[in-house]
Amino acid sequence: MKRLGVDNWGELLTRRLAGRLSRRSALARLGALLVAAPVFPLLPVQRARAAGENKGTDFSREAQTQDDTACNYWRYCGIDGNLCSCCGGSVHSCPPGSQPSPTSWIGSCINPADQRSYLVSYRDCCGASICNKCSCIGTDHEMPMYRPQANNHVIWCIGTNTFEYHCSMSVLVGLAE
Amino acid sequence: MTALLAAVALGATRLAQPAHPVRPANPLPAAQVAYLTSCGGCHGIEGISAPGSVPTLRGLTGSFLCTRQGRAFLIRLPDVALSTLSDRMLTQVMNFVVFDLGAPVAGGRPVPAYTIAEVARLRREPLTDTGLTAYRNGVVAGLAARCEVPAALHVYARSLPPAR
Amino acid sequence: MLLSSGWLAASAGNAASPVLQSETAGITPFQGLMPHELAYSAMDAITHPGIRIVDGDTANIIATVYSSEYANFAWAPDHKTLYVSETYWTLGNRGKREDVLSIYGGPTLSNEGEITLPGRLISDPKTHTFALSADARYGYDYSFQPAPSVSVIDLKQRKLLTSVEIPGCGLVFPFGGRGFASLCADGSLAVADVDGQGKYVVRRADRFFDILNDPVMDESVSDTRSGLALFITYNGWVHPVHLADHPTFEKAWSIQQAAQLSAATSQVGAITWRPGGQVFAAYQPSSARLFVLMHEGHAWSNEQAGTEIWVLDAHQHRLLHRWDVPESASLVAITQDAHPLLFALSEGWLWVMDPDSGAVLRATQIVPPGVVRVRGE
Q1: Structural domain count, chain B
Q2: Structural contact between residues A109 and A117, judged by C-beta atoms closer than 8 angstroms
């Protein structure tokens, strides 16, 4: 589910890096960015893979693997809403006060570290008032409402006793080989 | 610049581990991947969904192979028949749904798996122009009359009001 | 002129009031949704829900109607009766669930009761989840339990007529007096014909778009009166479809090609002008002009806000104008009268523009919008 906080995630990434952050976390994020784009020479296996696979999606090419409170964290390629990692939960646990929905949609995201495709379940946490932190929207291969198995605008609280949206997780299901 | 790089290197060392590393992640066979992305969101990763919301697959779909009508029904369901999956992949997925998720199968009688030709033929007649709930209830009543089916299946044979 | 509150007038009767009041509190009468007004619902959970009406000529607020979160709404052709499809729980986030179609009308747009619905889709605001037949005899509400169906409501008798099962499909595009179409997950169209007793037939037309690589956008536009739908894909292909019991499909045309650019593709790294936003398109049948919010972006960026509005001739398939949008906009609307206003909306602003010159006439701050409707749609 969920919505606009900004008009595109690129702008959001810039916003998240600028201001509002302590010096320490700013440096940490800077370090994270540098690590994601390797500064050190690639090992032979990695070099071969990097050369051979001009792969990825527009999202995965800009994604990172370090910070799960940022919208370009690799698992969030199709997330829509507030990140549970910013709300007292994590990518796979709901914050206290909310409950995970048994229904969701399942998409796949490419991990830039190994260029492989992983299935993730975008399960919402329901029942608590909206968290309103870390609003992200990833639309990589997101389908319209009439193909709900890949849509993130349905409020995926079906099966709970509530439709109050709190935040969204990105639960790893497995490696799609 | 050196100081910055040093500071960054320190930061890099502390953050050398990615958040939630994926290794080892279970590799999923292609049929399971197709099931998960096409059906698993609502029907559950293991075919278990919240009661009253979505028909449960786990432990129940195998019963449908007890009658010809039930066997055909699973393929003629619109979301199955009109899926964008190829005949080959759809056959693999439905055999997974019935034999892996849905056991016990056919009340214990030996029945063959779906073949590609069979699935290709059945999916050309999707149940798109009939009241699906009522039709399913009839199918399940037929299954219960012919085979031993799990008690949980009977909930689909009752005339259900529109779900909430 | 104010309409006096009923009980004040009643209690006064014909006797002179013991207290000579300079004024009494009344209610400003509602004139009906006027040609230059815009009605919009709220984007959920981050702002107070409800339906607000803004006057495009003055940027003033005209009226506000209460609603739940996740509501949708539609106007009857009299422009005075408002139907709101909404859901409440007795204890807020839990309790007994109530899905209703609330009715507002009369001289002061007041509540006139509600019709119980058998369930509803709960989702971010989407235009085509609730609509009326052209003569407003029937309301069509897309329900998702998650088995999809459409509740057909007899608005004259104020009760549910039937629930039409539409497995594998979604959304409602009414046409004629008693039919509607739905888009389907395999790239096809379903067409339902419902009779006065609630018996129905659903037919599936052939697939006409590639769902996995270039799907038709939810917020495509449709004119109920004529039955013409313009189904627009993520990559900017417009599929004109004449909705009928047996629909006819015209050849698709590309928005980018209409602007003398190459058609867009879904290839990774392919950055080009693409349609996008929330309510990304608006259509004026009388002039056959299609207004589309466009942005430069890669594939799968269909929700990115637009920096330009492209004005296209939907008959001749050519670009007429490209107007800059102040900042960026995610919603667009065009009034249906002879001297139309063009509305562009972002999360916090409504800009009123001249569709012929692109000039921004006025602007006003708004709450984050969901669904937008103008008179005569």
Answers
A1: 1
A2: yes
**Domain boundaries along the sequence of chain A:** 9-175
By the 8 A CB rule, do C51 and C70 touch?
no
Using the structure block, give the residue that is written with the tokens 């290709």. B120
**Residue B70 resides in a domain:** yes
Tokens in use for C283? 């259509």
Q: Which of B9, B25, B28 is nearest to A113 (CA)?
A: B25
Question: Between chains, do A102 and B16 touch, taking CB under 8 Å as contact?
Answer: no
Contact C212 B84 (CB under 8 A): yes
Task: Give the residue numbers spanning the domain of B123.
Answer: 28-156
Q: Which 136-175 residues of chain A touch chain B by CB within 8 A?
A: 148-150, 156, 158-160, 172-175
Give the chain C residue whose CA is nearest to the CA of A160. Answer: C94
A157 touches A124 (CB < 8 A)? yes
The answer regarding whether domain A9-175 maps to CATH 2.60.30.10 reads yes
- B41 vs A148: CB contact, 8 Å cut-off? yes
pLDDT higher than 60, residue C8? no
- C75 pLDDT more than 90: yes
User: Does the distance separating the beta carbons of A175 and B26 come in below 8 Å?
Assistant: yes
Is residue C65 very low, low, confident or very high in pLDDT (cuts 50, 70, 90)? very high
In whole angstroms, give the CA distance from residue C370 to residue C377: 16
pTM of the model: 0.87
Which two structure tokens, joined as six digits, stand for A28?
Answer: 């940490």
Instruction: Dump pLDDT digits (tens) for C229-278.
Output: 999 999 999 999 999 999 999 999 999 999 999 999 999 999 999 999 99
Q: How would residue B16 be classed by pLDDT, with cut points 50, 70 and 90?
A: low
Chain C residues whose beta carbon lies within 8 Å of the beta carbon of residue B133: 147, 165
In a domain, B19, yes or no: no
- The span from the CA of C361 to the CA of B159, in Å, is 59
CA-CA distance, C319 to C307, in Å (whole number)? Answer: 16
Q: Where residue B145 sits, what CATH number does that domain have?
A: 1.10.760.10
Q: Where are the domains of chain C?
A: 3-374
Asked if residue B44 is part of any domain, the answer here is yes
What CATH number belongs to C3-374? 2.130.10.10
Considering only CB atoms, B8 lies closest to which of A30, A111, A175, namely A30
Phi, psi (rounded to 5 degrees) for A40: -90, 155
What is the number of CB-based contacts under 8 A between chain B and chain C? Answer: 50
